[in-house]
Amino acid sequence: MMDLSITTRDLNLWYAKFQALRQVSVEIKHGLITSLIGPSGCGKTTLLRCFNRVNERYGYVTTTGEIRILGKNIYDPDVSLVELRKSVGMVFQRPNPLPLSVYENVVFGLRIHGERHELERARLDEAVEKALSEVGLWDDLKDRLDTKASTLQLEQQQKLCIARLLPLKPEVILLDEPCSALDVDGTRAIEELLFSLKGRYTMLIVTHNMAQARRASDECLYMLLGEIVEHRRTEDLFLHPQDPRTAEYIEGRYG
Amino acid sequence: MSSSSSQRFTATPLSRRKARQEALARWIFCGMAVAMIVPLLLIVGYLFERAWPSLSLSFLLEVPARGMTEGGIWPALVGTIYLVFLSLAVSAPIGILAAVYLNEYAGDHWFNRLINLAVINLAGVPSIVHALFGLGAFVYAARFGYSIVSASLTLAIMTLPVIIASTREALASVPRSFREACWNVGATRWQTIRAVVLPNSISGILTGVILQVSRAAGETAPIMFTGAVFYKVVQKGDFFAYGLHQQCMALSMHLYTLSTQVPGVKESIPFATAVVLLGAVLLVNATAIALRVYLRARKRW
């Protein structure tokens, strides 16, 4: 029996009057890569954005139900969004490094969350080396930490966006189609990176690319019209889909 | 078959007609664009030609002489500088901070829509109405009297909505993805603004503010009602000629006075005054452009 990292119960979400999530109850296991697949507009990204409550920044959102991350309901009134988002970071479709140097991008989270006296240079240097090493950028960038992050290649930018989360020691990393702006090599590099991070972080990845879900995830969630249709081990879902709607989608007859 | 294939892709009467229309449209649009610069060249050229006999450094530094029919414009120049800087010192911080609130914090509900509406309408109020408001509010109600303070505050109210609008535009041009990146590591809105939004919009904000210099310098009505006078005794070249509670001369007002109120003014003097006003405004605008180019060159995304 594996630990659960995220559980939701009867999660419903409305954008103004439009219901984007319907009675979503899922259990995401700790340390695994779980992929979310489904046709456009099925609520994958919405569900992802629920997990650090960043949805609330995008306008009129009403949510009911509960989301527990490591046992704590994140809709409890005593939850601090700042602390929540520190633990649950997100990576976007287009790499979005801040218009700062590579170094400042990596320590950005520390600067935001730390008291001034905790931010000695040595500690920051160490955090940068650790984070960049984890994502495999250290050797390439150690002599160029002062270059603007926006001048890096896209693949490096995306890795940097992942590295930016790591100094905050997140529990969960949410990835919203992290490879759709990258070429084949970039995609493979990011997938390998996710694989190497497995076990330490719980990762949720939204993808339009079924082959990617199949290659890169341990478990897979198929969503349709705001509902969870099927959630099983990736292998099982693709080889023996239980629900006819899943079968239609993965065989390419729908979507 | 060979005859029909040789006719392929050649112009038909219809496509020739479309090509003629295309050329015509292009010339009309281009002509209108050129027409824009003609008046500017004519105005500047005419002004310079008429002003030429009076233009010199001493014209800037001298005080008016012989009942303002001769001499220079120093008191008016200094007065305008006072008014412009004081008014922007008030309106720029208020305008920028208000715009940050409206763009970064305010949600879309009735109160903020009301503020938006107020900003838009305030921008459309004629300057003479601002003048009357300034007279009532600052000169009488606040008891600042006819003074530089009253006139500057009136100008500040007048420039405020435009500064808010231009600042909002500059803030809105910062890509959303930067903000998302900040939110998702748990940055507060203020941290986001300070670390990312302001540094990347500062060039646009400054440009918007500086462009208001020309408006503040050029307006006559608001200061005429609240703090500008026809004539005031000032030492030649004295930069600290006025106290803030005093009235002052100003270029726009001086031009009006010379042109309409004083008989026997040497003919080139009003034109030279206009050239100085225009030159000062163009200089400030050129500074704004240079600053924008400089700050643009530093940021890359």
Q: What is the average of the pLDDT values of chain A?
A: 89
Supply Rg of chain A: 18 Å
The number of helices of chain B is: 12
Helix amount of chain A, in percent? 25-40%
Strand content of chain B: under 5%
Question: Outline of chain B, from the CA principal axes?
Answer: globular
* Count of individual beta strands of chain A: 11
- Shape annotation of chain A: globular
CATH homology superfamily of chain B: MetI-like
The CATH topology assignment of chain B is MetI-like fold
Beta-strand percentage range of chain A: 25-35%
Which strand order does the major sheet of chain A show?
7-8-9-4-10-11
Rg of chain B, Å, rounded: 26 Å
Give a written overview of the molecule.
Chain A starts with a strand and ends in a 5-residue tail after the last helix. Chain A is built from 10 helices and 11 strands. The model of chain A has no long low-confidence stretch (mean pLDDT 89). In chain A, the strands form 2 sheets. Chain A has a 6-stranded mixed sheet, with helices on both faces. Chain A has a single domain (4-250), classed as Rossmann fold (3-Layer(aba) Sandwich). Chain A has helices at residues 44-50, 81-87, 102-113, 121-134, 138-141, 154-165, 184-197, 210-216, 234-239, 244-250; strands at 4-15, 18-24, 27-29, 33-37, 61-69, 72-73, 88-91, 172-176, 202-206, 219-224, 227-233. With 255 residues, chain A is of the alpha/beta class. In chain A, α3 runs parallel beside α6. In chain A, β1 and β2 (18-24) form a beta hairpin. Chain B has 301 residues and is an all-alpha fold. Chain B has a single domain (75-298), classed as Orthogonal Bundle (MetI-like fold). Chain B is built from 12 helices and 2 strands. Chain B has a two-stranded antiparallel sheet. In chain B, α4 packs across α7 and α9 (189-218) runs antiparallel to α12. The radius of gyration of chain B is 26 Å and the shape is globular. Chain A binds chain B through residues 52, 54, 57, 59, 81-86, 89-90, 92, 94, 96-100, 108-109, 111-113, 148, 150-151, 161, 164-165, 168, and chain B through 108, 175, 177-178, 180-188, 191, 195-196, 199-200, 299-301.
